[in-house]
Write a structure and sequence with these properties.
288 residues, 16-stranded antiparallel barrel, 1 helix
């Protein structure tokens, strides 16, 4: 009986090794943390850290990505004029605001498949601690059309606004299409977007030739038939230095020079240059 047992056990197969299932929970211990800010010096003698953020990113829900960004309430600043130098670094009563983290953004990005169509989804909630606005973006590729993006955003959302640094003035439902221009010219890009709610449209065309990039944006208010145009030109022929100019059809714009983390910006208008509006910025960041 002992021999029969050994013969039988020798025929048993070892179970195949199991592939571990990716975690569906948020791995807080694996979150990457970064502290960043922007120091700005203006022509009127003021120097301030304009942005002070703590950003954490982590994998989420089988390949997704979760990002938390908190804007700290206290940023060091100083200004100098004929009366001397003033700074908030000596106001210890305000420094406790650096611990206030109620002003934060939350975003979740996830690639998935909807009705057989691959989609990139992003849910963005701004100023969560203050009842801010949210936006949902879905991006996919449609054959013979190009990349199509649908954005649903509430009034006040900044990330969904087509104008950098501005917030949406009203709720928005925007459809954007990156047109397939490679067959026309490999260095040509074109896109169009339309806000179903606001009935505003933007047409963008870009072209790159060597070290020079030119882009034209035409904003169209379809209800009033009013159009506004903005032209951007950038030159990168000098190693490590970028030169850019932006002008709109009202005669105002800006000239910028960038080098690594630094940028010099000179606003211009029909009346010329106001030296107080000139600013030098330095971006800084630190991984924790």
């Amino acid at each position: 009986a002992h021999l029969e047992f050994r013969a039988h056990s020798a025929q048993l197969k070892r179970p195949a090794p199991r592939t571990p299932t990716p975690p569906t929970h948020l791995e807080m211990d694996q979150m990457d943390i970064k502290v960043a800010g922007v120091v700005t010096a203006t022509g009127d003698g003021a120097v301030a850290n304009k942005k002070f953020t703590i950003t954490g990113t982590s994998t989420f829900a089988k390949g997704g990505k979760l990002t938390l960004k908190s804007r700290l309430k206290f940023s060091p600043s100083a200004s100098a004029d004929k009366n001397g130098v003033t700074t908030n670094m000596t106001d210890f009563g305000d420094m406790h605001k650096i611990t206030n983290l109620d002003d934060f953004d939350l975003s979740i990005a996830k690639s998935t498949e909807i009705m057989g169509q691959a989609c990139d989804l992003n849910l963005s909630m701004e100023k969560v601690g203050r009842g801010g606005a949210s936006a949902l973006t879905a991006k996919t590729n449609v054959e013979n059309v190009g990349d199509v993006t649908i954005t649903l955003a509430g009034a006040g959302h900044k990330g969904a606004c087509p104008d950098d640094g501005q917030a949406l003035g009203a709720d928005m439902c925007r459809i954007s299409v990156n047109l397939p221009t490679a067959d026309i010219h490999k260095d040509l890009t074109a896109s169009v977007d339309y806000d179903v709610a606001g009935k505003d449209a933007n047409v963008r065309v870009g072209y790159k030739s060597g070290d020079v990039t030119v882009a034209l944006r035409s904003a169209v208010a379809t209800t009033t038939k009013v159009m506004a145009h903005t032209v951007n030109a950038n030159y990168s022929g000098i190693e490590g230095i970028g030169i850019g100019i932006e002008m709109n059809d009202s005669g105002s714009g800006k000239l910028s020079v960038t080098k690594d983390r630094y940028e010099l910006e000179v606003p211009v208008s029909k009346s010329g240059v106001n030296k107080d509006d000139i600013k030098l910025t330095m971006k800084w960041s630190m991984a924790m």
